[in-house]
Structure formats: C-alpha cells, structure tokens
Write a structure and sequence with these properties.
By secondary structure, this protein is α+β, with helices and mostly antiparallel strands. It has five helices and ten strands. A hairpin with a 2-residue loop joins strand 7 and strand 8.
Length: 180
C-alpha cells in the first residue's frame, strides 16, 4: 500500500479530508501514515527550512500534509538513484522519505525533487482498513507526478478520471448532487 493514493469519498465529511488526496507513506499492523498532497500552505519553504530551498520543486511552498502534528514537517523526495542511502528511506516508485536533519548537500545527487509537508495523516492499527471498508476512501495507484505536480488544483479529479470503470465517473460528480 505505500505509494498508493487515498482519495476521499464524497461521503467523507471530516473537514481535514474533504476532497483530499493522501499519499500513503507507510502501512502495517501498527497503523498507517500519509500526507495530503493536494493542499498547498501559503508558507514559503525558505521561511522555515531555508537549507532545503534549492531542492524543493515548484511552487516552493509548504504543503498541508494533514491534521496531525502540523508544527512538524515530513519531506518526500523523488530519487534519482536507487538503493540504501543515509537520509533517505524508500517508499515506492522512486519516492522516499527524506530526513530533514540530514545535510542537504549530502543528498543533492540523490534527490531530483523535494516536497515538504507540515503535518501528516495517521491511522491507528486497523483504522484505515476499517475506513476503506466503510467506503470513506478509494485506494488507487499513485505516481511521482501526482506528488510533485506544481499546481495540485484538480489533482483529485485527474486521478479519478484515469481510473477504470465507474470510479472514473466520480471525476465529474458535483459537490452537491442535489443541485444537479
């Protein structure tokens, strides 16, 4: 499941996740961890983590990664190289978690792009599986281009549109179907 995207179902009304696209970074028997990839914060990276500014891709802003520990940061990198490397932990598909305590210059050759998230989304043991079974989330394959899209506006719609079958229909669903 790491590397997959969670797309909030229209029935998921928690304000933290309405229309959210979450990249799953880790999932196991203890729970799951991810970051919301389609919500840009208005804080420039250079204002809070200036050492990483040169590696951060457009738009150069922090992303609102989720409702948990919003005063902390997680970084997701697109790797140029494969294999173990101090400061990088592989997730899937060329994506890795980057240790923000590492020296940026030591990772420049390994990192093609970087995105930094304020906060994260987390689930306890069995919680995410129960929410998926309840229909709160659609689990779909993700790509690095989803994570590093310069403008994430419309990301949820575009990811839905490329899905097979009836799931693609949700890309054109109005916010309030009763008004349709």
């Amino acid at each position: 499941m790491p590397g997959s995207l969670l797309l909030a179902a229209p029935t998921l009304l928690d304000p933290s996740f309405v229309d959210a696209v979450v990249l799953v970074l880790d999932a196991g028997s203890d729970g799951a961890l991810g970051v919301v990839v389609n919500r840009v914060a208005q804080t420039p990276v250079h204002a809070v983590l200036p050492a990483w500014t040169d590696l951060v891709g457009p738009p150069g802003l922090l992303f609102a990664g989720g409702p948990v520990e919003t005063d902390g940061a997680l970084a997701v990198a697109l790797r140029r190289t494969a294999g173990d490397r101090p400061g990088l932990r592989d997730v899937a598909g060329g994506l890795a978690l980057l240790d923000l305590d590492a020296v940026p210059a030591s990772l420049e050759d390994d990192v093609a792009q970087l995105r930094i998230f304020a906060g994260y989304a987390g689930w306890g043991a069995g919680q995410l599986e129960a929410e998926v079974a309840h229909g709160d989330w659609y689990v779909v394959p993700g790509t690095a281009s989803d994570v590093f899209r310069a403008d994430p506006t419309g990301l949820r719609r575009d990811v839905l549109r490329r899905q097979p079958g009836e799931l693609a229909w949700l890309a054109t669903r109005p916010v309030d179907p009763d008004v349709n």
